[in-house]
Write a structure and sequence with these properties.
Layout (H helix, E strand, L loop, with lengths): L26 E5 L10 E7 L2 E10 L2 E6 L24 E2 L6 E2 L6 E3 L9 E2 L1 E4 L2 E4 L5 E3 L4 H4 L18
Antiparallel strand pairs: 1-10, 2-3, 2-11, 3-4, 4-8, 5-6, 6-7, 9-10
The structure holds FE2/S2 (inorganic) cluster (FES).
The site of FE2/S2 (inorganic) cluster has 12 residues, from loops.
Length: 167
């Protein structure tokens, strides 16, 4: 099976971008029609550092952007209702917990307690009516890395923080 060629942007506001990595490394995410301009986000399951997590994609100024659903202030999900990440003016991504405000295009913190950090971005591209995403070292598909997710990679923790008293 061959992947379709990237679509030619039909106008200046489409945001369709040419993939920077091989198409074979991408995964289908959703139909383009699922993402209305500044509308509801499309949420999807991933594994972040081997643990189940949520991510989202939304269309902003014609371009599909995707991020981990994980605030830079406290690592919690940010949408105030399922798929609702934008403020009332549909201009900024706003965390529903303490109001951190992010630039939808780059994920940079603009205001609030996110303190100049940024959202974790996920690379996407769109062609032939389909949105694709690229897994990364840290962000993997929900099912693909299940086998390795249980394998600890850090130093072995002590069996208990509370050692029995010695007498
Ligand atoms: S958890 Fe998002 S602003 Fe505090």
């Amino acid at each position: 099976m061959t992947m379709p060629e990237p679509a030619t942007p039909p106008g200046p506001a489409t945001g369709t971008k040419v993939p920077q990595r091989p198409l074979a490394e991408s995964l289908p995410l959703c139909q383009s029609s699922a993402l209305a301009e500044r509308g509801l986000a499309f949420g999807f399951d991933v594994r972040l550092w081997g643990q189940p997590a949520r991510a989202f994609a939304l269309r902003f100024d014609g371009r599909v952007v995707a991020y981990m659903n994980r605030c830079a202030h406290v690592p919690v999900e940010m949408d105030w209702q399922a798929g609702e990440f934008l403020d009332h003016e549909r201009r900024w991504i706003v965390c529903s917990i303490h109001g951190a405000t992010y630039d939808p295009v780059h994920g940079h913190c603009l205001a609030g307690p996110c303190a100049q950090r940024r959202l974790m971005a996920i690379e996407t591209f769109e062609c032939a009516g389909q949105v694709y995403w690229y897994p990364s070292r840290d962000i993997q598909p929900a099912a693909a890395s299940a086998d390795t997710a249980q394998t600890p990679t850090g130093p072995t923790a002590p069996a208990s923080k509370h050692e029995p008293p010695t007498t």
